[in-house]
Structure formats: structure tokens, C-alpha cells
Amino acid sequence: MAELNKTTNNEEKQKKKSGLSRRAKRRVISLVSVCLVLAAAVIINIIASVLTEKYAFFTTDITSGGLYNLNEESVKLAQNISKDIKITFLSDRSTYENYDPYCKHVTKMADQLSQYSSGRIDVEYVDLIQNPNIENKYKEESLSVSDVIVSCGSKYNILKATDLFNFSAYGDYQYINSSKAEAVVDTAIIKVSSDVETKIAILTDHTEDSYTALEKMLDSNNYKLVPMSVEKEKIPSDVDTVIAFAPTEDYSKEAVEKLRAFLKNDDNYGKGLIFISYRFDVECPNITALLSEYGMKLEDGLAFETDTTRMTSSSDGYRNIASGFSEKELYIANYDKEKDYPVLVSMSRAVSISNEQIASTLLEYSSQSGICPYSADENWNPNDYITGYAGVMAQGVSGGDKGISRLIFSGSTEMWTSLLSSQQFTNKKYILNILNDINKREDTGVYMDDKIITKYDLSSVNANTKSVTSIILYAILPIAILAAGFVVFIIRRKK
Fold it and tell me: Are 250 and 285 in contact (CB under 8 A)?
């Protein structure tokens, strides 16, 4: 009996010892599992951090306007760049990003351009205050700590804050309301890396309007605008396009003959003349004769619109949306009439087609438009002058097998000056496409909408992204964790 009790006690001790061992094993397994999960989470985060820093396509932009996502055009530009480009910020990164919330958009954009370029585009931060010697490299320039320099070899483009951002005023305070940095930096990259700089001659004879906006646009798109007097000078042989800018009086017969010879180009043709009309009544028989040779007739008056859906103001019939190109697809690359904004024309002299064999209308007003004669008094009735489809821009051609020259008439000076800066219309894109086509250029610039931050937190996430993110974070993830815990609990209970 004693022996039996001893055996029983030994068995109980063995069971007890065995039970403690199993419990300890479970604890060790649980502890190891927790450590493994934590280690895995840390490793995954480290890998994700490295990948997002090195490869832009591993990041996701959840801002409402895609502020931190590169446009497809920018990605293609970076991927196809064949020269070494340097983007230099004249502040250290943290200082630059703290200037304004929009500045972080620029640094992130530069990072992504570098990533997509496989290192062809290098981004550096040089503190101008700590490294004043950098000013010696740009002695003729006035540098600021908020500047960004895009360079390729000895060629460079200095981008000021006013180049990168759009500003608004609130009393005496100015603030950034949107960013145009992506298109501006892309264009600067194209400009400094291009081996081609196209010259365009602009005629300054008898003009009183400023063409500063046009010059700035052309300069930023790798065109060089060369002012000249057609009355006194010979048109340079390396110029393919001449712009006659809003003359307030007629050119002489000798000057018009120079333009005629320029277009003929020793029977080789292949040239372009853009005549931008002055808004007021000008007697110009010599210019009119040249237009007539290219199938166009200069009308005696300003084109007006009565269709309120085409007017920017119901009280201004001279500032209107023009069409015609959307159907013919003239000079609008990849134009989508459902998405792209139209061209805005203001105070335009009317033009009509006299020879449809060699000329065509490029831009026109609606069926409810007409031409107000310069002789009309202030009480004129628009209904008396409605002709329908008043032309405001036209083109005539000449040439043959060797090449085609084009004379383009534009009745609106403002279309080429003050309206270029409008974000609501396609004037800049339309005009650049005309010039690119005449000059056979493809590497001039990039077009995209400005980017806007509405708020600098998750409220800037669009509704769909915000909903999906909320569902994942507040529903799917907690449920998954609870389900996993429940499964482990059941398995352990069965054991």
C-alpha cells in the first residue's frame, strides 16, 4: 500500500512537473511570437521607409489635389532625361520647407523627379547665408534664400518664389494661394538641357503695347524673342517666325515687301508671320494687301458676342470665349473639349475669309456674334449687326512641294499679353502650340493645372480616399485583429 502511494505521488509530481513545463513553453512561444511580430513590424516599416525614400512609385498621395503626386508629363520627362541636371535649393531643407506649407510640395516634387530619373537629376540644398561663395558663381544675378536654381552644365535657370507660386493679397499681407512649381521646374529642365534655342523676331515698329508677358512666356519655353525694326533692318536668316506686334499705323511698302520676301524664302517657304492687330481703327492698305494675298479680309470693326454662355461678363460683348479649334483640332495637342479650357479673346478686330482655297478661320465667335463698325455711335444696337460666326483669328498659306509658309492673323492684342496668365483659359497652350508647329519644336514646355492646398491636414484628403482610409483604419483592421485573437483563443482552448 505504501509502495502504491509512493508510485502515485511520483506520477502526480511527474504530471505536475510536466504541466509546468508545458505552461512555460506556451509562455515562451507567446513571448517569442510577440517579439517576432514586433520585429516584423519594425523591419517592414524600415523597408517601407527605404523604398519610399528611394522609389517614388511606392508612395501614395492622399491630398485632394494630388499635391505630392507628379503629373504623368513630369514622370516621362524625368525618365527620358539624357543629361545630368541639378536642382539647387538656396536653403537647407528644413528651413525651405518651413517658409510655407507649399514649399514642402516643391521639395517632394524634386525628390520624385530625381527618383524617376534614375539619378540623372540631382537635388542639393546649399544654405546661401552659410555659403555666400555661391553668389560668385552667379555674379550677375540677385539671389535669395527662397530661390531654386535648375542647371545643366553652364546653363542655368533661377526660379524665384513668384515663378513657383501664385500669390494673393489680404490687405498688406501676401500669401501663396497655389503652386505652379511643377510645370515651371519641368520647363526649366527642358530649357537648360535643350541644345536648341529658337529665335522669334518681333517687330517694334509703330507699336505702343507692352509685350513683356509674351516675352516672358517665350523665354521660359526656350524661345528667344528678338526685337527689330522691319522698316530699318533686314530680317535675320536664322529666324523662322516673325511677330508683327499691334502696329498703330501701316507699314511702308518696303517693309511689307520684306515680309513678303521672308515668307517666300527664296521659293523654299517654310516660314511663319503672325500679325497681331491693333484694337482700334487703323488705315493699313499695305498690310491689308498682304493679308489679301493669303486669302483673308480685314473687317472694319470689332467682333462682338451676344451669346451670354460665351461671354465672361454680360455687360462686355468684346471679351468672349472663342471656338472653332475644338472641331478642327488646329494647334491644340491632345485637346479634349470635355476637359480643356477654351481660348479667351478680348477686343478683337474681325477678320473674314476671301479665298477658302488658301485660308481658313482658326478662332471664331458663336452664331449670335457680329461686327461692330468703328463708325458706330455709343447707342448702336447689336441686333442690327449680327452676322454670325465673326472670325477673330485666321490663317492663310502659300508654298508648294518645298515647304509651306503661313500668315496668321490675330485680331486681339490682349490674347497674346494680359490673358496669357489666365488659369481658366487655354491661351498660353494654344499660342505655344502655334509657335511650336511653325518652328517644328517639341521640346519647349509642359502644361498642367496649378496645385492648391485647401487645408494642411487630413481634411485635404478627397472624400473617397478619406472614406476608404477610415474604413480600413477604424473597421477592417480592428476586426481583423479581434478575429485573429479569437482564433488563437479557440485553438488554445482545444489544446
Answer: yes
